[in-house]
Amino acid sequence: MQIFLIRRSLGFLATLFAISVIVFLVMNVLPGDPAVTILGIDSTEDARAALRAELGLDRPIWLRYGDWVWGAVRGDFGTSYFFRVPVSELIAERLPLTLSLAGLAMLATVLLGVTLGIVAAANHGRTGDWLIMVLSQLGIAVPAFWLSILLVLLFAVKLRWLPPGGFPGWDEPVLALRSLVLPTVALALVQSAVLARVTRSSALEVMRLDFVRTARATGLPPGRIWGRHILPNALVPIVTIVGMQVAAVVTGTIVIENVFYLPGLGRLVFQSIANRDLFTVQALVVMFAGIVVTANFLVDIAYALIDPRLKGRLA
Amino acid sequence: MTFNRIGLVAAFLSTTAFAVPAMAQSVLRIGLQQEPTVLDPTTDATASIDGMLAQNVFESLTTVDESGAVQPQLAESWEISEDGLSYTFTLVENAQFHDGTSFDAEDVKFTFDRAMADDSTNPSKSIWEPIESVTVIDPRTVEVKLSRKDAFLLFNLAQGDASIVASESVDDAATKPVGTGPFRFDGWTRGDRLTLAKFGEHRDAADVAIDKVEFRFISDPAAATAALMAEELDAFPGFPAPELLDQFEADPRFNVVVGSTEGEVILALNNSRAPFDTLEARQAVSHALDRSEIIDGAMYGRAVPIGSFYPPHGPAYLDLTGMYPHDTEKAKEIFEQAGVAGDEIVLRVPPFPYATRSGEIVQAQMAEAGVTVKLENVEWGFWIDEVYKKKNYDMTIIAHTSPNDLGNFARGPDYFYGYQSDDFDALWDGIKTEADMTKREEMLKEAQTYIAENAVHAFLFQLPKLGVYRDGVEGFWAASPVLFQPLAGVTID
């Protein structure tokens, strides 16, 4: 287990390092000039030159990368060209919102997806199963941003139950939760549709196995058969998909935050790439990559907990 | 238990009792598409910084009214010397900064010296280019000496770039702006909202009806529509989507106001290389285009066509849209004679809806005139590098939003137009230094005609200002002759 952890941590660091090099190179190769973006196309050349010097853009790329790495290991991720504040401050402001949104969306996905999947499998071949399958097919087919617009039109514009967007901050928890309902639903519906299908087919597969038939034959109540026999054995594919969905939900926040004008990290990614805000992009991409790699890592650990036979893989 | 309940009821009653006076505060909620990067209008050209803060939090020596005319502000009057090279400003007596420090001539000198310095990153540094020195005569008098006459100086000094700042507070202006305006900065949640509060100490505070202003940043047009429809906003003065205006017009809860801006939308032609280095080829482009079709398709009919590079609401405007009337056959003929017909022309379009939509129509109209246009939708960074800096394009579509920007045509062959004309340079020098308004207007008309005759670009339409306001909101400008919008005169019911 320890060797596994060390190996994974080293892999984790190597991945982040490779990503940071790639982002730095790509951002420098991409056409664009922060000085013109900030000062506008009617600015004078000497004002732009002064700004480039102020931002350190006039120094060679390898020097700038070296400085960035040296700063990053000491916890300083550079200063945003555009907002003129430390990148860590920008991220710290926005992280709580994006994490809450992604967390709520994952919670909703798992609750809804697994429940619907079980109900469908338990009613295999009957109306309930058919209905859930049709709905989940719809859920997979509908793009999240379009669903968002429909949700806003119905619940914010027509019924006025929920705000159409924006985020008042966690200082006002009730208002904050209210404004996260629609974005969470928009993110979770599509993902739970996928998860419901996987749960259903995985459960159906296990239900056909001999030990389930034996359990039934011994007269165990259905709840116990599901809880002790079917679900634990159906869990491996479900956990795999959930792990992948963490990545999908985290990146999905980029679109959803734009539709609901939420000041989260997704919006920041979008803006900083368009503005060529190098250090902000750098830190954000590394962080998103970190989240995805961590999710994969947790899935691996979960395998070992679910299925003792897989423990060997962790050695 | 009962006790607790009574306590709860009492607490509830007391909060509602306290809530009543709070409700009486008039709060104006304004939607904005572009969020600011920093809050200092003197170091960043982002339009929303001026849009929110100039003339509200900050003030300048002069200001500009809705018609574009110069009015006094922190300078209550000024005298210009006979030779036009010396301006003596008399400052208002009772202005003060929001941090309690007083405003005087030293602040003007500090602001101007800072903007003129070698390491200045002022986006409109050219405003101070004619200024030689700034001298404090006494706390209420400041003298500005010029090295050459500048007819635009008083207008330019009204811009957000020339906001008067104080040495005590300017270092934090990026996140905590301090000015002398009728509203003080109250708070900013990056990406979400920015709030201003009425500054009670302002010399004209009695005339300000709004207690609090809340700017909300909503970039997506569908989201902006939803926010207005759900009555989360009172005003959206720069509504991004002309295609969505009909539903607001049909709804009695809203007023739609369409005005003009300083943005001339042009089909820019690269004058420095073939085929548009010849007058005939450029004229043929103007003949090939049908402006009304472009305006209908790209702006849903909500824009005014232009025939040169000057806003239709300006005092010296000349309607030159008839100079090269839409005539596909004629265009085709000239293109064939000039040998352009077989070439592939590259139209590189930046990612703004007015540009991408116009681009498709231009492409179709050029095809009718026998010219194949390759349409490339490019990202803003790419546009800045390839089109603006390297002049690597044949055609592009862009709005020039600065006031008095006819001078772009005198920026020399290195500017992305690739255009140079000694005649025009001389004309522009005359305009810049002519103090007599009537004479200057005559010269501006001459300059418009010159640019149109030479068909330097094809001129499409003036970018409209689309405003959606909740019924009962009054006092917003219909047009924007400048980037700022003073809120001191706005009222809500």
Plain-language structure description:
The complex is a heterodimer of chains A (315) and B (493). Chain A has a domain at 100-267: MetI-like (MetI-like fold). Helices cover 77% and strands 0% of the residues of chain A. Chain A has helices at 2-29, 34-39, 45-55, 61-73, 87-122, 127-141, 144-158, 173-207, 210-217, 222-259, 265-274, 278-306. The longest helix of chain A is centred in the C-terminal third of the chain and has 38 residues, at 222-259. With 493 residues, chain B is an alpha+beta fold. Chain B is built from 13 helices and 17 strands. Chain B has helices spanning 2-24, 47-53, 105-116, 153-156, 221-229, 245-249, 279-288, 291-299, 328-338, 353-368, 380-389, 422-433, 437-453, and strands spanning 27-32, 62-64, 70-72, 75-80, 86-91, 131-138, 141-146, 183-189, 193-198, 212-217, 235-236, 254-269, 304-305, 344-349, 372-377, 395-400, 458-470. In chain B, the strands form four sheets. In chain B, strands 11, 12, 13, 14, 15, 16 and 17 form a seven-stranded mixed sheet that branches. Chain B has a four-stranded mixed sheet with strand order 1-10-9-8, covered by helices on one side. A four-stranded antiparallel sheet of chain B has the order 4-5-7-6, covered by helices on one side. In chain B, helix 7 (279-288) packs antiparallel against helix 9 (328-338), helix 8 packs antiparallel against helix 10 (353-368) and helix 12 packs antiparallel against helix 13 (437-453). The two termini of chain B are 44 Å apart. The interface between A and B is large, with 51 and 48 residues.
